[in-house]
Specification:
By secondary structure, this protein is an alpha/beta fold. Helix content is 36%, strand content 17%. The protein has five helices and five strands, in the order E-H-H-E-H-E-H-E-E-H. Strands 2-1-3-4-5 form a five-stranded parallel sheet, with helices on both faces. Helix 2 (31-45) packs parallel to helix 5. The longest helix has 16 residues, at 133-148. The relative contact order is 0.20. The structure holds 1,3,4-trihydroxy-5-OXO-cyclohexanecarboxylic acid.
């Protein structure tokens, strides 16, 4: 795979508070530490990653729009917007960039309102419940998909 392959990593609302926020559920790593783990993984996979966090739905949508013809894949933890945002799902559907959905916690072990994801039907797949490793596993799965499905 060319080193030019670029993946946008999008972190949604409240993920800037990782480390502080409900560590029993989300772990003790900060967002910077999660991004550092991802950087190590990206180097091993020979891909570039660009990471972005926003607490605002519109900013996440803009980031998805801006990724058109810039990034070949999207790795997204949309936080609570996973369960509420048709607009983020529509944005992902519009740009048609292969997307993997990740969650730190196992959303299916938690409250019923977290069991539904608007993103899941348009994602290649979802990884949930492995803490920060969900991101690394997700990146690996996404790069594997991009490698197996090169754009014509
Ligand atoms: C989360 C799960 C969501 O339900 C929650 O709202 C989050 C984080 C996770 O990574 O486990 O903000 O996406």
């Amino acid at each position: 795979m060319s080193v030019q392959t670029s993946v946008l990593v999008l972190h949604g609302p409240n993920l800037n508070l990782l480390g502080l926020r409900e560590p029993n559920i989300y772990g003790r790593l900060t967002l910077d530490e999660v991004d550092s783990l991802l950087l190590v993984e990206s180097i091993a996979l020979s891909v570039e990653i660009v990471t972005q966090q926003s607490n605002h739905e519109g900013e996440l949508i803009d980031a998805i729009h801006n990724s058109y013809q810039k990034h070949q894949g999207i790795l997204i933890n949309a936080g609570a917007y996973t369960h509420t945002s048709l607009a983020i799902a529509d944005a992902l559907k519009s740009v048609r960039i292969p997307t993997v959905e990740v969650h730190l916690s196992n959303i299916y072990q938690r409250e019923a309102f977290r069991h539904h994801s608007f993103i899941a039907p348009i994602a290649i797949g979802q990884i949930s419940g492995f803490g920060a490793q969900s991101y690394c596993l997700g990146l690996r799965a996404l790069v594997g998909y991009l490698r197996d499905n090169p754009k014509l």
